[in-house]
What we know:
Blueprint: H1 29-32, E1 46-52, H2 54-59, E2 61-72, E3 88-89, E4 98-106, E5 109-116, E6 125-126, E7 141-152, E8 161-164, E9 179-185, E10 191-193, E11 201-208, H3 209-214, E12 216-222, E13 228-233, E14 245-248, E15 266-273, H4 277-282, H5 285-289
Parallel strand pairs: 1-9, 11-15
Antiparallel strand pairs: 2-7, 3-6, 4-5, 8-9, 10-11, 12-13, 14-15
Keywords: Metal-binding, Repeat, Zinc, Zinc-finger
GO biological process, one term: protein folding
InterPro entries: DnaJ_C, DNJA1/2-like, HSP40/DnaJ_pept-bd, HSP_DnaJ_Cys-rich_dom, HSP_DnaJ_Cys-rich_dom_sf
Amino acid sequence: MDDLFNAMFGGGGGFDGYDDFGGGFGGGSHWSSGGPRRKPAKGRDTTVPYDMSLEEVFKGKKVVMNLERDRICKGCTGSGARAGVKPKECSKCEGKGEVFTDRMLAPGLVGKMKTPCPDCHGAGTKLRDKEKCKKCKGSRVQKEKKRVDFEIEAGVEDGERIALRGEGDEEPDVPAGDVIFLIHHLPHPSFRPQPHSPGSLQILLSIRLSEALLGFSRVLFIHLDGSGVHITSKKGERIIKSGSIWRIEGEGLPIRGSWGKRRGDVYVRFEIEYPDEEWARKQGDGELVELPGRKPDLPIDKEKVVYRQLSAKPVN
């Protein structure tokens, strides 16, 4: 179970719809038309970053969590007032719920911007303390906890958005907003995304020099589902060079929206683990000289080439 957070919806986030300009710089015509401010089509959405391991992306995940969100107060049905009390129109905004404030747009240039009324906090009405609902204290909403569960399909992409419709905060007179989970793939210690290949992964593997020359048959790595991936390279079939890349088809991440249950591939990039100096000192010179590899040709005309005896040191 993922106990994600407590009280995660009270503050909200993003734009709240108030920072639009009121018809230019002199106050727009929709302000002078009177009446309360226009209600949004639904409550604001809440975006929640959600981290997933690559193992979870590979297999999919069932999420169970507890949400805490605002819901219309059942004691006053969203009016904020006690029974029998009618809220009075806010005198500062004249019931509109918003006022114009000056905003500096540039040196010497001031414009008008709509903001929620500071006296009524955008409600358009005001109540004295003794007139407020005992349950919500005039806020018109109450906190509600709810347990939700949902499935995240295997192969969900990094940056994908998953919406739980109507599970966000409620506001009076408008439907509840949505909770939107923004998926983020966590870095993996072994696998990386393969560029320009949807669903494909790459992994860097180290093999011994003897395996590069003579082949191998063993488990090379543990896959994201926990299984061991056994690969065979036969002696004489190929010599693996450092930087060689092999492809394992259909073992990558699921590709959503594709026909059938198609997956990407896994690209294995090899690096060669060479023996250390101690090993080299124990070997006979004849055996090492016979190892394959062509010596570089030197210039033939020695009279035209100046040779210098220099020293070089390894840097890693």
